[in-house]
Amino acid sequence: MIVNRKAADMKCSKKLSLLMQSRMRLSQEQSIVLSAVLSGKNVFFTGSAGTGKSYLLKKIVGSLPPKSTYATASTGVAACHVGGTTLHAFAGIGSGKAPLDQCIELAQRTGVRQHWLSCQHLIIDEISMVEGQFFDKLEAVARAVRKRDDPFGGIQLIICGDFLQLPPVSKSNEETKFCFQAKSWRKCIHVNMELTEVRRQTEKSFISLLRTIRLGRCTDEVTRQLMQTATNRVERDGILATRLCTHKDDVELTNERRLQQLPGEMHSYEAVDSNPMLVKAIDAQCPVSHCIQLKPGAQVILTKNLDVSRGLVNGARGVVVEFETEGKGLPRVRFLCGVTEVIRLERWVFKGPSGIYLSRQQLPLKLAWAISIHKSQGMSLDCVEISLSRVFESGQAYVALSRARSLEGLRVLDFDPNVVRANPYVLQFYNHLQKEQLLSQASLHRYTEAEEKENGKSS
Question: Band of the pLDDT at 273, cuts 50, 70, 90?
Fold first, then answer.
């Protein structure tokens, strides 16, 4: 009995220590979300761009048991950021358009079925881009494969994203159905929480402007402020503004043309992939290309946090100044944060098809004359140029504008207030969520205090 008591004390102490460590540097509202997750509740947390959703999600992933936790996201790049796989790859039911019995049959395949059975905690990031009918299909598949009638077959759900950002991709003749409109959403989610403390931007006036844009409103004052940015000189130290584009083809053409126009020798870097036969699968999830070509003067962006304390973060802008003469001829990059650094190879590891781990070793750089709005999600950019004339989705203008750290680092061309819009169903959902927020927060505060007192007594 003494041995068992001692083991229990150590276990309790370890749990409390992990809880305290994971709460370090978290805001109060982030800590509330983490407490709800660690208590086993199904949680949806949201918030505007720059409120630390990705940071919190990484803390949550690190706090849950790795063998039974599956981190997923609606897109490959977002999945890579959380060290996981795409939701579609995890589910193993293809597009989910097939009839339910066929989807269940697909999910019963050996490798896929094992995922469903061993998963106790399912994380889904960038939920705004997951279609509502697909979510319902997943919920039914989970119950069938796991042979349990509990919502989602008893799997704990941790869902993150902002429905006021990019919506699900749908055909022009189909009406978009968001996840919160899924039949199973309400029975699956126990706690809804909106993070409100913005960390990306520090200027109160810019934060206020972005909040207005997020809600699909564009006042005369907001229009005036954004039109004034057209004359902003955001270039500095040879580092040009990154152009955010609505269409992927525009990005590729711009970057290729500008690189070819530079004088000097071209330097090519081939990635080392764990499985060369699965290059397409790696390309879909990795934020860097299999082949990177650079010249002196190439505008680049960092795609990984290398040294946060020195400003070498995902989204940091720079320019290639020279190449090492020895070894692999690595590029030396001068960044806008004032640091000049030789950029070395980094490794990305993520889950591929059938749960196998894939990796890519490559320079953490991308050409940055232009980037697509979709690929910029999660990034914080120092100097941005945006043309919003071709915006075609609700929330797209907001996503683009909220990448900028400051109004001074932003240049908006041909601004039209009509491109600022938010989906009315999403606005209704958030209005309802905010009314419930105070009640949820109060009960969670009480739960957190009781849990900490209990942990203090038993340890």
Answer: very high
